UniProtKB/TrEMBL annotation:
<dbReference type="InterPro" id="IPR010902">
    <property type="entry name" value="NUMOD4"/>
</dbReference>
<dbReference type="Pfam" id="PF07463">
    <property type="entry name" value="NUMOD4"/>
</dbReference>
<protein>
    <submittedName>
        <fullName>NUMOD4 motif-containing protein</fullName>
    </submittedName>
</protein>
<dbReference type="InterPro" id="IPR003615">
    <property type="entry name" value="HNH_nuc"/>
</dbReference>
<dbReference type="InterPro" id="IPR044925">
    <property type="entry name" value="His-Me_finger_sf"/>
</dbReference>
<feature type="domain" description="NUMOD4">
    <location>
        <begin position="6"/>
        <end position="52"/>
    </location>
</feature>
<dbReference type="GO" id="GO:0016788">
    <property type="term" value="F:hydrolase activity, acting on ester bonds"/>
</dbReference>
<feature type="domain" description="HNH nuclease">
    <location>
        <begin position="61"/>
        <end position="104"/>
    </location>
</feature>
<dbReference type="Pfam" id="PF13392">
    <property type="entry name" value="HNH_3"/>
</dbReference>
Length: 172
């Protein structure tokens, strides 16, 4: 595919992106120079850039989403962008596709990038041990809501208590 640039929606006149996933500033003034932006890698391994609007307010954006929104039609209004090969640094148009969360998760599992974690629940009253194939399954069985453990996991990570249960999230 021939490499070419387009203006980034919402930042017209300020930034452009090319079909290879490179982002450029297009404004030249005292605080901003015309240049190719250097993305940074977030904790999930995705490339991000900081885009500044006319009021100098920063907007942190994923490079793969910028490329998809700029070059790839999304007639079904799918919310997520999938990297076709597992290289998160390859943000070229050929490597991206619109998808839903279910497809994105299935693809990452198929490629071995994401695995279910075994969850062990131990009753502090009786010592009974129950094992579950995922955090969501354990939460449904013990709390009746699949998201019930989310706040506890954010705070305590892989070991926490829920009512009479000590929950341990084991690596896959």
């Amino acid at each position: 595919m021939v490499k070419f640039r387009k203006k980034i929606k919402g930042f017209e006149g300020l930034y452009e992106v090319d079909t290879e996933g490179n982002v450029y500033s297009t404004v030249q003034n005292s605080s901003r120079r015309k240049k190719k932006l250097k993305p940074y890698i977030n904790t999930g391994g995705y490339l991000r850039v900081n885009l500044y609007d006319e009021n100098s307010k920063v907007h942190k954006r994923y490079v793969h989403r910028i490329v998809a929104q700029t070059f790839i039609p999304n007639p079904e209004n799918k919310p997520d962008v999938n990297h076709i090969n597992p290289d998160k640094a390859d943000n070229s148009v050929e490597n991206l596709e619109w998808c839903d969360a279910k497809y994105n998760i299935a693809e990452s599992r198929r490629l071995g990038l994401q695995q279910d974690k075994t969850v062990k629940a131990i009753s502090i009253l009786t010592g009974e041990v129950r094992e579950y194939t995922s955090i969501k399954n354990a939460a449904m069985a013990l709390a009746g809501k699949k998201w019930a453990f989310d706040p506890l996991r954010k705070k305590y990570k892989n070991k926490f208590y829920y009512k009479e249960w000590r929950i341990e999230v084991m690596p896959a």
